[in-house]
Amino acid sequence: MDGDGLRLNMNGLDYLILALYFVTVLGVGFAARRAIRTSVDFFLSGRSLPAWVTGLAFVSANLGALEIIGMAANGAQYGVMTVHYYWIGAVPAMVFLGIVMMPFYYGSKVRSVPEYLRLRFNRPTHLLNAISFAVAQVLIAGVNLYALALVMQALLGWPLWTAIVVGAAIVLAYITIGGLSGAIYNEVLQFFVILAGLIPVTVIGLVKVGGWNGLMDAVGDTKLGEAGLHAWQDTGSTANPLGAHWIGIVFGLGFVLSFGYWTTNFAEVQRALSAKNMSAARRTPIIAAYPKLFIPLVTVIPGLVALVTVKGLGAESGDLQYNNAIPLLMRDLLPNGVLGVAVTGLLASFMAGMAANVSGFNTVFTYDIWQAYIRRDRSDEYYLRVGRWATVAAVVIGIGTAFIAAGFSNIMNYIQALFSVFNAPLFATFIIGMFWKRMTALAGFWSLLLGTLVSLSLYLLYKGGVIDFNSDLEESFWGAGLAFVTAVVVAAIVTPLTSPKRDEELRGLVYGMGGVDLKGDVLAGDAAWYRSPVLLGLIAVALAALFYIPVF
Amino acid sequence: MSNDGQPAQDPLIDEAQAEQRRSAAARLFDIRRVIGGLFVAYGVIVTLIGVFDSRAEIDKAEGVRINLWAGLTMLVFGLLMLLWQWWRPAEAPAPNEQQPDA
Q: What residue intervals traverse the membrane (chain B) (predicted)?
């Protein structure tokens, strides 16, 4: 490896803070065990959680390693434009999920996102999506695990395989024992620990560069220059740090990529399905949108601070890669004590990401593959056991894929990009199916399959050097957009040629067919105006727009 | 009570819904206690470290007594979580939400 350049000077008290965290996380898993008796308790927390818990878990499930490390790296590399990933690339989609789509997901009582496809379309569509989701989750879990091990190796000097096994064992223990409640409760805890770790780095970083104004002046003098301080200014062409036109940002990132990820990714949606009633389920992604608005403060700002203060940042390899922006600042600025908290926060983020993948996998594997196609009509206890074994299998396969990822330095980026491309045709199929009752089961299947094949081929042609794009990002905009259009066209052609489903089969699944009850299970307090999903959602979108003003 | 009626039926989902009667979810503990507890512990540890920080450590953090400030903030946050739980304990969930149309 690259030597000891990143090694942190952790002392006994730092390790005490880290150990305290590990013990707490395991304790939460054990304590959640007594609340599990049925399979729904295990996979969906018995649909009993309050909105603030599911909302914070929703945002935490996305705060994985690749997110924190990656967004700070983007901050250093592309500057303020990185905020697009949050304000236009996440918040609107989260609000849309809560206001428009959640009534169909939660109201139909489906237990997973693929299961919605089984009810709305047919079993082939369902199986296709269930298998691709399951495979994606174990691969991404492996990538998260590998990234966790890399950080532990660089910062703490742990051997790679020790770090992989320790990280995997902890996640395995708390999910196998505590089920989704164990995962979600830990995600809420992780959310706060991650913030407690990142805020001190940001604050001291800002002090070092002379506050916000000092940072702005200093960034102007770096290789990023003045362009690094504006989100929209130069987007009339692609001559900006991100290399993206505003049309690409709005439609590619803001619409197809982000709606594809946030609204159909079961690892996220599962958190909302575990909420205690319809109102709480709808508020889940919207409550998550508020922290999401502010997270760039603790990722993009440290990225910029690192760009200004760390000489030579942005090397192709070695310790000075952009990805090390946050670890480098931790090394340079944090004394023992907050250093321990920051390391704990970083490890917490890796675990949150991996736990989301694993808990999404075990549910889809058990309900959508095992129960639907392999062993039907067994007792509920049987499926609960299958779920526990599926968790073990997911983590073991995750360890395997972590070692595969270790062998290919770039494979993690490829896998990540690849599966972001899978989401676009899925979103297209969902959104047409939800709003066009005439769309037939066969149309659903062919839309999903052909849309996926188109985006996959474009990706492989790009990687094979047959087709050229300015950047990976530009390829993913085009791949997602093309897949979306393909799915729409296929649906429009196949639907008139095949026979539709009967109206009563679509109740609660399709807009305008009835069967969705928004008020049926409300609790006394849910009628308060500040718990209105629509109002909360609109405020979040308005804030996202306002936040752009100072960095236009 | 809506006039929308019930969503479409599915045997697998109905089975899972029927099992909900046995659900033990009501026995789940309150996460606020754990968050509060961990942050109070972190707050105490980091504040104490901050009280005894040497000049070198304060200089490393650009002259900010970051351990002291971060420790006190975490302590207050932890206490607020515990206070919130004490102030507004989790409402006991409805005994059974599976009752046919109340």
A: 34-54, 66-87
Q: Residue A236 has what pLDDT?
A: 79
DSSP letter, residue A248: I
Q: Which residue has the higher pLDDT, A369 or B88?
A: A369
pTM: 0.91
CA distance B17 to chain A (A): 8
| pLDDT tens for each residue of A90-134 | 999 999 999 999 999 998 899 999 999 999 999 999 999 999 899
* Chain B residues inside the 8 Å CB shell of A520: 1-2
Distance CA A399, CA B86 (A): 42
DSSP string, A309-340: HSTT---SSSTTSGGGHHHHHHHHHPPTTHHH
Fill in the DSSP letter of residue A219: H
B57 to chain A: closest CA residue: A335
- Asked if pLDDT for residue A66 goes beyond 80, the answer is no
From CA A62, how far away is CA A258, in angstroms rounded?
Answer: 12
The 10 Å Cβ neighbour count of residue A5 is 14
Residue of A338, A373, A382, A513 to mutate for B, most B C-beta atoms under 10 A: A338
Tell me whether residues B38 and A20 touch, CB distance under 8 A: yes
Within 10 Å of residue A11's Cβ, how many Cβ atoms?
A: 14
Question: In this structure, how many other beta carbons lie within 10 angstroms of the beta carbon of residue B46?
Answer: 29
For the residues of B57-94, what is the DSSP string, one character each?
Answer: HHHHTTT--HHHHHHHHHHHHHHHHHHHHHHSPPPPPP
CA A107 – CA A115 distance, rounded (Å): 13
Q: Per the CB < 8 Å rule, is B27 touching A34?
A: yes
The yes-or-no verdict on residue A305 having pLDDT over 80 is yes
Mark yes or no for CB contact A519/B2 under 8 Å: yes
- Of B8, B31, B62, which has the smallest distance from its Cβ to A507's Cβ? B8
Quote the ipTM score. 0.90
- With CB atoms and an 8 Å threshold, state whether A40 touches B20: yes
Closest CA to A351 of A162, A86, A166: A166
Give the best residue of A20, A38, A201, A526 to mutate against chain B (max B CB count within 10 A): A38
- Helix (H) or strand (E) holding A449, with range, is helix A441-463
- Strand, helix or coil for residue A141: helix
**B29: amino acid identity, one letter:** F
pLDDT at B99 over 60: no
Instruction: Kindly state the greatest CA–CA separation across chain B.
Output: 71
Angle A174-A176-A182 (CA atoms, 0-180°, nearest 5)? 40
Confidence (pLDDT) at B68: 93
pLDDT higher for B58 or A405? B58
| C-alpha count within 13 angstroms, C-beta hemisphere, residue A95 | 26
Provide, as residue numbers in chain B, all residues whose Cβ is less than 8 Å from the Cβ of A21. 38
Distance from CA of A14 to the nearest CA of B (A): 9
CB A286 within 8 A of CB A52: no
Does position A406 have pLDDT exceeding 80, yes or no? no
Most A-contacting residue of B3, B10, B19 (CB-CB within 10 A), to test interface: B19
- Rg (Cα) of chain A, in Å, rounded? 23
Q: Could you tell me if A196 and B74 are in contact, meaning their C-beta atoms sit under 8 angstroms apart? A: yes
- The predicted-structure confidence for A432-469, as pLDDT tens digits, reads as follows 999 999 999 999 999 999 999 998 899 889 888 888 87
